[in-house]
Every structure is written in structure tokens, then in C-alpha cells.
Recover the amino acids of this structure.
């Protein structure tokens, strides 16, 4: 989508508000010559938005954009340092002319590698190996073979497709599920029919009204007892109490969870201590250098914005995800 810098700026470049938490984007000033950067935290964002043309949402776990939206009097473009945009598709932004872009493409391979690592860890019982090592226990046992196991991956975007490719490479038979059928990809309406044969269910879909609570008690009952659930999408894809019940009752074999309904995961959550559960702190896409990659993507889009070229990763705000392959160079 072509969009160029407007007139509400100081000489040389647009005013950019940057929402951050404790840490600011690394070396952002090196990529933004001629612009005024207004760094703000959640409690100061409303004061940074008036007169700003662009907003870089570095703290993508915050709801501050929603609460400060009324102060965005000249905003034309919002870019988020995440693939998911569920915290940004609120009515004020969706109904406006403001363009929303995301960081699609940065996390695909890292997340696929992470999911492959989780699948291997679960099949080869690595958590128990490490626990027994810590106790100096020597207990021989058998583990599972992955070749021929079946994985159902929910999410037909770049991340889901990268996961499917990675799991196929280590020997699994993969069924990919997306919002609509595009053979060999299954439509979401076929998911229930795929679950009874799934050894691994991997959730990597964006959070939308259609995917919220996707894995509930009814869906969990369709999984076989040997199935493991892996969630690297959004916590709200899963009805967490239903998953806890299924794990506690032994109706599924385990889970590896990188995202949760409430983050950080509360210390009293039973998921922390369940024996067949791996908990990680929303880190599946975060490899060494990832923050610099996010800044580089924003900088590229800023250069496009300033020259009037189409932006990369324009989000369909009514659907909650990018629907095209992105802008050409």
C-alpha cells in the first residue's frame, strides 16, 4: 500500500513515537536520520502521540495504544515489532485510515526450529533425562521414534508453513490447517476430523475472533491419549483450564507451551509443576540478533514510507493478519 510522509513534521522527516518498556529498540537512531523520535512508555504514550505521523510499537505486549488512541491526532502509520496484531485491532484503529504493518518474516525460521526442538524433547523424554541427571539417577528407558508420527499444524501463514517444513524434514507426516482450504492445506473446518490421528498438535495461528478458544474441552476430547499440544501462537488460542484438566486426567500425553492467557504465567498456575509440561516464557522466535532484525525491518518500511513506496507487511485490519506476500522492493 503506497503511503508517504505528510506535512505534520519538523524539517527533514516525520515525527515517530516509539512505545517501549524497559529497553528501547537497539540502534534505532542509526536508521532514522532526519526524524524526531519520541520515546514513550505505556504511561507517557498519550503525551508523545500528538503531532506524530508514525508509531513504532516496540512493546507489543502492551495495551497502551488502545488506551492512548484519542491522542493520535495526526497518525498515519503504526508498525509493530511482532507478527501478531491482536492487541492493536481495536475499533479506533480498525475504523481509521491509519495503516498497520507487522514484523512478519522475522520469526518464521526461529519458531520452526523451536517447535522442532520441542517435538524432539517430548519424543525423546529429555525433561525426565535432565531431571534424573540432576538427581544422579541412572534409569534406562525407551523413547519414541519420530519418523512416521503425525503432526497437525494450525496456521497457514509463513510461520505455520515454516514449522510444517521443519517437522517434515525430521520425519513427521504433517497436515497443515489454515483459515481456508488451499490443497494440500486443509481449511479450519476440517480440523476436528484431523485431531483423532494427531500425535502432535501445533498451534501457530494468529489470534482472531475465529481462533480464540480454538482448543477447548471438545477439541481436546478428540485428541488421542498419546497426543502432545504445542502452542507458539497466542495463549488465548487455548482454553487454559480445559487444557489443565486434560493434562491432569491423563487424556493427553503432554504439552509444550510458549504463550499463555496471562503473561508472565502466574506463579500459582498448575502448568508450572505438571510433570508432562514444558513451560517457556514467550521466547520461541527470539534468537540472537532478533531485535536488530526487527529494527532493520522497521527502518526499511520507514524508508518506503518517506519515499511513497508500498509498505511491507500491511495488515488487513478487519481480519487481523497480512493477506498478501508483501510489497515489492
Amino acid at each position: 500500500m503506497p503511503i508517504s510522509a505528510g506535512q505534520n513534521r519538523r524539517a527533514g522527516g516525520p515525527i515517530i513515537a516509539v512505545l517501549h518498556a524497559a529497553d528501547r529498540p537497539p540502534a534505532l537512531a542509526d536508521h532514522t536520520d532526519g526524524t524526531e523520535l519520541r520515546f514513550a512508555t505505556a504511561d507517557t504514550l498519550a503525551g508523545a502521540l500528538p503531532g506524530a505521523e508514525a508509531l513504532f510499537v516496540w512493546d507489543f505486549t502492551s495495551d497502551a495504544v488502545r488506551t492512548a488512541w484519542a491522542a493520535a491526532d495526526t497518525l498515519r502509520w503504526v508498525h509493530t515489532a511482532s507478527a501478531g496484531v491482536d492487541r492493536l485491532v481495536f475499533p479506533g484503529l480498525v475504523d481509521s485510515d491509519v495503516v498497520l504493518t507487522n514484523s512478519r518474516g522475522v520469526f518464521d525460521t526461529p519458531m520452526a526450529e523451536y517447535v522442532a526442538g520441542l517435538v524432539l524433547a517430548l519424543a525423546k523424554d529429555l525433561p525426565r533425562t535432565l531431571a534424573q541427571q540432576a538427581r544422579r539417577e541412572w534409569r534406562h528407558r525407551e523413547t519414541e521414534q519420530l519418523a512416521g508420527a503425525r503432526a497437525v499444524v494450525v496456521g497457514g501463514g509463513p510461520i505455520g508453513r515454516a514449522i510444517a517444513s521443519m517437522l517434515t524434514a525430521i520425519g513427521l507426516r504433517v497436515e497443515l490447517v489454515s483459515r481456508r482450504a488451499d490443497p494440500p492445506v486443509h481449511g479450519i473446518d476440517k480440523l476436528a476430523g484431523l485431531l483423532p490421528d494427531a500425535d502432535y498438535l501445533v498451534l501457530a495461528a494468529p489470534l482472531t475472533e475465529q481462533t480464540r478458544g480454538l482448543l477447548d474441552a471438545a477439541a481436546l476430547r478428540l485428541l488421542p491419549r498419546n497426543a502432545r499440544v504445542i502452542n507458539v501462537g497466542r495463549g488465548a488460542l487455548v482454553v487454559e483450564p480445559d487444557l489443565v484438566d486434560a493434562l491432569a486426567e491423563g487424556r493427553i500425553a503432554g504439552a509444550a507451551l510458549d504463550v499463555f492467557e496471562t503473561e508472565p504465567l502466574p506463579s500459582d498456575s498448575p502448568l508450572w509443576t505438571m510433570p508432562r509440561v514444558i513451560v517457556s516464557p514467550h521466547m520461541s522466535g527470539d534468537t540472537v540478533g532478533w531485535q536488530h532484525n526487527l529494527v532493520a525491518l522497521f527502518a526499511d518500511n520507514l524508508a518506503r514510507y518517506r519515499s511513497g513506496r508500498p509498505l511491507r507487511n500491511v495488515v488487513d485490519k478487519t481480519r487481523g493478519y497480512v493477506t498478501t506476500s508483501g510489497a515489492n522492493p
About this structure: Residues 7-11 have pLDDT under 50 and may be disordered.
